[in-house]
């Protein structure tokens, strides 16, 4: 050991000159001194230790360097892992620093001890104490002490000093482990004697460094909290092991209390951590984040914030305001509850200067006072002008943001954490809230927050002088609102909020005021409605009467470019509440112009208040404010104003430039549709008041491009919010023909991905042809077909909107396409263009098309149908040129229009019934007063008549379409007279005209069957009605095979069989025979059994003429029964035998000689001929017609029997 000391002295003498040349003149950094006189490690020294900055270490004073000797001595003596020349030079400088310090020798002596043996003894002592239950009666490390612990430490050698300190430290650590979280303060001479504190600290640092497994630094730090001067020892320990700073702090925070100011242990822990962070201020914010993460030691977080001094001062918001606001207004409810409990518990104790809570409140109050315009009282001299009062100075612009943050923080402290402000705090807060900021956006925000804080905490106004000050300030708000809005350049000013609160107070909607306050402040505060009574009286009696509110609201300017991007409370909120409370109608103030201007000043994204505003406005138009005054309603928007909005669209003109945005047009469309729906829904109420508001004319609706607007809205769904879905709902109710499924599918084919790619990839599609050229090319369509095709091809690349100018030329000349010899490609191209136009202007397009396809006679008379004509009588669509029925592309268009007008007619009649029912009934009731024998017509009769008319329309359309499926006389002649083959499918013989099955008739039949299938699925009653009416038997193969929904007929065939009309019974059996062949289902089998039973029953009751009429067409139907269901063979054969016996008996009574078919059947069965070679004799029609009816029936029975037998043989 003497050699080591001599070596240090030699190094000291040799490197003095080198050190002086390297260090130069560096001033010493004084160590930090606590109130107890102990020197703590300075941030400068700790940073030097962290970075092992030898130059900065050499600049430390001797007292500061003394605290770091344990680490420096170990650093100098231990073999380094870094073998670089730079570290060798640094190590020499460290040795130079140590050479002049006397305490180094004692530390070197401590390091010369055998720590392995010391650790073994320490572990044995721990085991002994564990067995003894923590008793200190025996100790292996320390024998029985002759003197006090301090004297023993003074006179002991280094090893015994280590043993004494280790024994004392282990005892404290064991007691901490057994304390179950209860804090205690251990009295220990060793840690309390001021003379030996530095030597004890050296021993403690050496022990922890050499025995880290026995003495984990986190456990040692926890134990040091239970002794006096523990924070000083802890700082020295961490300073000598700087890498353990975060570990120690995290351990202390995890083991800390949830509320640190509630106990002595919590306060000591907070103070220790605070000292650690003062030693290493760069980590203070990280330690504060750990506090929030663990929800422990809230006072420490506040204390660290109070101690934090940022490098660059932020003039806007202080660190304390930011930190506390983040805790109380953040999204973490656990943190908010934890810190709120800290505020509530801190208020229960007496005011102490050492309390962190009161330090925080004092700091916040100082910041509040610092930004006040100037100190002023709340007393206003009576009769003086508030503007001239010397106490009313403006808030400085650079302080407005900080003032707003302080207001929100105090709102959170009072509303969430339950802070009860002192009189001084309340006085200063009221002064700040009634300050007058500059006209900036931040100033507008500050006034809004101040106003809401007054509403949330009216107890801040407790004296008459304060109440008078508040009224003056509110009056100033009303007066300066317009100036603030114009000067600040914001749309949402505090004037709208004042107006809205006044309306809520008038309508006693205190809950709405509370929601408004909470949303403005950005926090949920529990506000009692009863606390608003004083403010309600002030508003309703002194500031805003209801008449003043309505008059002021109308004069408020609309919000320019209103959208969801504009936050805050706007004029629209105020108008909405006034409309809802019926204030405008009550005071006879017209609001129509304001609403129309606001709807015209809208853009995307759609503001959420617009749709509720329109709904409540419509309600105020139709429903009076009171029954006593039915005329007290608002005026609707005029038709001319609506037309002006749509000026430039396809429905009004062909101009491309739009005067109004798409948002305005969609909102006006929503208004019209909602108005018409509400008008129909309130018919009964309006009839009772003898009031009939005017609905918008059909001419107006015809000029609005509804479908085009819906397409536009579909592409803007995210920006329009719920407007698109609301429009679809209204369309489905009022305009179902614009919401057809096939229409949406066709639109997808027109506007989908493939058409878009086609337009993008093909060359530029600028059309070079005018409408006149297109019209001229149609005049000689047969000869100029290729030229016309070249003109139409570029049109297929145009978008629907660009194609609108050519709609007139395309539809007006569609009749010319019916001439023979027109190319199929030309027809398909025109049909495709028509479908594209149908996506943007369906109603106008349909009217033009129906008029263009009229028969030539009507065209010569220039008879044109209107939209209303087609709604009243949709069958006008089928009164077209007969050649359309054999032109599949045009027939497809015709069927599309027919389906649409049938749906439109239903909606039209429903609306007409609702519109006229109640008024007609009221009129009839008034006219029948005093008269007898004139009962009111029941309402159900009108409904039944309407349903009967709709059913007649649908069934007539179906019958006409089925008739179209029949071949004409010319087509029958081309087939050789057998026209039945034109409608039969699955037969051995097919109609072959112009390409076999792919003929115009067959294509038309397929199109018609598709439409009938849709109609039957939409309303099965139509199928039932049509089949009860009946249609040609020749169409049954086509309808059963071509209409997939024909299986529903199995439900009503039993009812059809039960009808008294014989023709309906025959039609039912014929229909059933085809259904059994097409749908061999169990249900079909049961209905077939019923039909056979009915035929057997009718055999016994029908007269001879009627029997012939019934069985001649129905006996052939037995063959399909047997073919579909072989189990019916027995029943069918039995029926045939019965019919044959009856006919044979009738024939036998006559004088004519006839060989009954039964006898010949027996001969055939008994002959040598096989059953497979049986054949019927061929009989001509003349022969059968001249025969006796019973004879014809016998032949029919024979043919049916032989077909059944042949079917049976083929089955085997």
TrEMBL record:
Keywords: Nucleus. GO terms for cellular component: integrator complex. This is Integrator complex subunit 2. Pfam families: INTS2 (PF14750). Belongs to the Integrator subunit 2 family. GO terms for biological process: snRNA 3'-end processing. InterPro entries: Int2_metazoa, INTS2. It is found in: Nucleus. Its main location: nucleus. The gene is INTS2. It comes from Electrophorus electricus (Electric eel). PANTHER family: INTEGRATOR COMPLEX SUBUNIT 2.
